[in-house]
Amino acid sequence: MKEQEIYADLSAKFGDKIIEFVEEETLNPTVIVKPAALDEICNYLKDSEDLQFDSLMNLAGHDADGESDLSVIYHLYSTSIKHYITLKTFASRDTPAVKSIAKIYRTADWHEREAYDLYGIIFEGHPDLKRILMEEDWEGYPLRKDYVAAEFYRGMRIEKVK
Amino acid sequence: MAEFIFWIIWVLIIASAALVAFGNNLIHSVFALMGTFLGVAGIYIFLNADFLAVTQIVVYVGGILVLLVFGIMLTNQITTARISQSSVQKGLGVLVVLGLLTIILTAVLPHDWVGSITPMAFNETVEGIGRLLFTDYLILFEIASVLLLGALIGAATLARKEL
Amino acid sequence: MGRLHAEEMVLNMGPQHPSTHGVLRLKLRTDGEIVSHIEPVIGYLHRSFEKHAENLEYQMVTPFTGRCDYLGAMGSEHGYAMAVEKMMGIELPERVEYLRVIFAELQRIASHLVALGTFGLDVGAITPFIYCFRERELILDLFEMASGARLLYNYIWIGGLAHDIPPGFVEKTYEFLDAFDKHVAEYNQILTGNKIFIERAADIGVMTPEIAINYGVTGPSLRASGVNIDIRRTQPYSIYDRFDFDVPLGEGIHGTVGDSWDRYYVRVLEMKESAKIVRQALDQLPVEGDVKSAIPRRIRPPKGEIYFRSENPRGELGYYIVSDGKNVPLRLKMRSPAFSNLSVINEIGQGFMISDVIAILGSLDIVLGEIDR
Amino acid sequence: MIQSLANWILSFDILAGMGNPVAWGLSLFVVSALIFVFVALNAIVLVYIERKVSAFMQVRLGPMRVGKFGSLQTVADALKLLQKEDIIPQMADKILFVIGPWVILVASVVTFAAIPFSDTLLAANMNIGLFYVVSISSIVVLGIVMAGWASNNKWSLYGAMRSAAQIISYEIPVGITLIAVVAVVGSLNLQTIVIAQGGTGNLFHWIPIPLPNWFVFHDPFLFLAAFIYLTGATAEINRTPFDIPESESELVAGFMTEFSGLRWALFFLSEYANATLVAFLVSIIFLGGWQSPFSTYGGAQVGFSILTLLAIMWTVFVKIKAKRLSIFPVGLSLVITLCAWLFPGFALWLASPGLFWMLLKVASIIFLLMWFRWTFPRLRVDQLMYVSWKVILPISLINLMGVAVWMWLTGEIQF
Fold this sequence. Notes:
- The structure holds 4 protein chains of 4 kinds.
- By secondary structure, chain A is an alpha/beta fold.
- Helices cover 22% and strands 27% of the residues of chain A.
- In chain A, helix 3 (107-119) links the parallel strand 6 (97-99) and strand 7.
- The longest helix of chain A has 13 residues, at 107-119.
- Chain C has helices at 49-53, 58-68, 73-88, 94-122, 127-147, 169-192, 195-201, 209-214, 220-223, 231-234, 260-284, 337-343, 345-349, 354-364, 368-372, and strands at residues 9-13, 25-31, 34-41, 156-157, 160-161, 304-312, 315-323, 331-335.
- In chain C, a hairpin with a 2-residue loop joins strand 6 and strand 7.
- In chain C, helix 2 (58-68) runs antiparallel to helix 3 and helix 5 (127-147) runs antiparallel to helix 6 (169-192).
- The radius of gyration of chain C is 21 Å and the shape is globular.
- The N and C termini of chain C lie far apart (47 Å).
- At the B-D interface, helix 2, helix 3 and helix 7 of B face helix 2, helix 4, helix 5, helix 6 and helix 7 of D.
């Protein structure tokens, strides 16, 4: 199915939980959705006979400029129908809450932990949301554009990145 | 020379037995028991019972002691290395030991030991034991072998391919 | 007969352990020798690849990609270069495409050789490991001829290659390919068909297709479960649509489809297919062509974002790149195959013994460098 | 050997004054020291050989730097181990940690007292020799459990438990296999067992192929028993494919994980002592011990002719492979064979030294063990138990009965 049709299908089903559809030349065709509705949308995408998106290829957090909202990008793929869709959702910088899809796509389990680790995005309903790549007691979320590393970590000086 | 070795064995038996009885680390006690068993095997050799000595090692050290070690390690939480024991009812124990000692001494002391020793030539015991087992004690031997076969089959049944 | 349940014990396998393939820690909850829960603890090798990438120009990121998957550096560089090229719309000379395919496939063979060898090592066979490394050495020699380096190449640049191949390279590659089939037969003799090896690997860690897809397992591990997905086939990139090759799938010859033995054997077969591709690419390799002609003077992809995936030796290697039109990426996420492949171990490893967990881990073929990035 | 040494000491006029007990004690000490030196040197040589054998099997060179062809490498390694810091983990049970390796070493060294190296070279001619060896080697289990427990490390404990279970399981089929041989000889004395295998006879008594009277050729059941014994013994000494207690890819190093330096070297020493012991037992019990395969007139000449043939084949091989002609081995063996045919007595004298044949057989068995180690993967612990209890044990029991029936058929025993 083409991405445009998937968008039409989704917006017919979920109404205002789907915000818009973005399709530019240098961009993967992306459906922008509301963070609170993510789990139901993914459930539908996975279970629907026409869509069968059974595989989450990638989940990435993103911070555009250090001021505006954080975003999470989901790249979905169907191994049976072999079509793609990209979902994107925005979460406010201060209380970044997104519904977890770790129970729908087990891939998301670790990827959400990684996004939490590096961006501080809280995935609601994640079974075990804790840091994965950084140390458990690390301060701050390193991939945020406004991140400033602490002076010391456990008595070791942290070298500054330019 | 032989006497010297005999005294070494004697000290080994007494010392390790004391460690078994008075040591307050259960695992140490079990391993100390090995010294006692080996010492007793040595005494058997001095009694010209070579077959019995080796059997003592294979049964008591290789079998029963390993079983004891397994038992202790598996019944207790293996993550805690120290398991201590302490003697209880010491008074009663002393009483029993004294009683035993009296009985043994009354049996041993009246005898004139040194004069009665006549060195005995070393005879091979294996063949005699084998002959006896297959003639006079054949029925007992067969019963024991059936028992052991049963134990073997039982062990083999327990060793499943899928755990 | 009822199972006896002893008290569960937590066993820390790693971070310093001979069979975790790097600094990985597995927290095992064991009941006797049976493992009831596996929790991988990763991050010991985290080198902030993504943070680095956000501070470096596009062409400066290439060496870092190789350092992530250090056993498949050519594949990583290839994927990254293609992602940026697609953003910028660069058309490559034919010769570059062919050479890239040759290097990527040779790298696949080299990486699978390490996978097979270490898997053998994990189940106690030491000699196959050395045999595998003998052939890997030959491939590394070829890489050294071309790029000057044996492990981390920085050879595939955005828009081309660092240098053209030196004279004699093609002949040496042909030589390697001619000898290679015989070597694969040797591995089959010493390891694949070995009764003990089959006992150790068959029916161990069975991964059903549903579990594999749901956990995002990709590459040979996924195909061993019988799922016919190879990005070179399903979504051909570069010039893979020109070659004739098979996609080997797990068949469960000695056990269930998707067991450790299948994951092993799919790699053996894949090496043969890769050798086939290299041979075809060498046959068709255009003689003329400047490998540097398409390298752009300034690498500034237009504003936008891309998710580009390619088939690395370990599975789907995806680059998610966001550009704001500057010469530094705004965001670069590497979707590393082993990251997802490792996460499945708790699902497929439960109820097996400690030795089996090691066999399963070996059959998943992880590289900690790309898991932790 | 102890008594003859004592007698020899006392035969000197100057020394006769020390008296019998002292001379006897001195001889005892010397013989014990000789055995220990043998075990230690043996380990050093075997480690070198093992490295070289593994290297050649794996298309590499192995140690090459220290000494000619790296021959002093293990000596250097031993010196290094001696100098290492003596580490006892803080939470370890210090007493058992120290005693453990020694128990294992002593148990494996003491067994050599009963091993006949040749017709005269034998520390103690025990009439229960075989039983003695089996029983003493069962002490090793305790040492391993001791070491594994004392380390206070989960991996060590796993290794120790696996090892104990494994050794005990394999002791039973191994013991039953040995009983089959004892039934044929009617003695537990290792020297008697070797002497019973002298001379030549037919294969399996009836098939007219002249072979030495070794027990491996005695009957089909003992032929099978030899393989069962080798398998079981490999498991008992924890070598690949049964090296589960110290499987380095699973348990790091099993019960040896926490050990280092000299104490670790002791484990190594006893490991190779055990491997050698198994090789000795296989050659004594099944391959005729120090008996020469060519101990008869005619046999010796045939043997030397075979040697010449081998030498010629070797020369051709070298010529083809290395493209150079080495004439020396062919020449030497040709001369010896010629002498052998001309002077039969000389041939018999040359073919009979027991120590040579004994060590040759032992070396072949050890090579076989190394071959196993460097080609096979490792079994899993439950598969190992399965093999012991469900496969080897029933076969060895049937084997024992088969030997008895065979002897009744061939008339070796009557009822």
